[in-house]
Amino acid sequence: TQLLEQSPQFLSIQEGENLTVYCNSSSVFSSLQWYRQEPGEGPVLLVTVVTGGEVKKLKRLTFQFGDARKDSSLHITAAQPGDTGLYLCAGERGNKLVFGAGTILRVKS
Amino acid sequence: NAGVTQTPKFQVLKTGQSMTLQCAQDMNHEYMSWYRQDPGMGLRLIHYSVGAGITDQGEVPNGYNVSRSTTEDFPLRLLSAAPSQTSVYFCASSYAGQGIYEQYFGPGTRLTVT
Fold first, then answer.
1. Successive 10-residue mean pLDDT values, chain B, 114 residues
2. B110 vs B114: CA distance, rounded Å
3. Are B103 and B33 in contact (CB under 8 A)?
């Protein structure tokens, strides 16, 4: 059982559509990070959220940390083919990061 | 600035063989870690280190050893390879302090154990 559950596991959409990826847990985290990974490469950090209820925007990407610091969401507006990749959430517990299983996003042109 | 480098990029081992996966970083990061990535399971922490001479176990440490004699290097040793260790291995580094900072990942080593 994953400590961090991501949904959906796979998402295939058309260019221009909006989407939301969810990252849920029954545990509280000190902070939560979102990474994006392309095939054959290591993950790259997109954002870190620290405060319950925090919302961060990165161009067309909006990240939210739940009030209780147990869950997070990533919303992409007007998705583009360049957004294609594996999106991973990771929660901080002590000196360790716990990763979700990831959401594979495919944006078709 | 090379960032985090890993060697080799690909490796095939027979069951029972041992090998060392190399990881080096040139960013003077105190925190280094090893993860394995398997389909549908995300990244799982194997071992980590908060500084030279200090290592600790992660979520899936069995069958792996690490050491941290310098700030730059954090090798991962497979003692006796098993097919269950077939995976993609990532090394990561970051600053250490209050909390976990941005992890910089290497390009990965794809290991197959037959």
1. 93 97 96 94 93 95 97 97 98 81 93 98
2. 13
3. yes
Please enumerate in sequence order all residues whose Cβ is within 8 A of that of A94, keeping only pairs 6 or more positions apart, or say none: none
**A contact set with B (CB within 8 A):** 2, 4, 6, 9, 30-31, 33, 35, 40-45, 48, 50, 88, 90, 92, 95-102
Q: How far is CA A3 from the centre of its chain?
A: 15
d(CA B82, CA B17): 8
Helix (H, G, I), strand (E, B) or coil at B67: coil
Looking at the DSSP bridge assignments, the partners of residue B94 are B31
Residues 6+ away with beta carbon under 8 Å from A43: A35, A36, A37, A86, A88, B43, B90, B103, B105
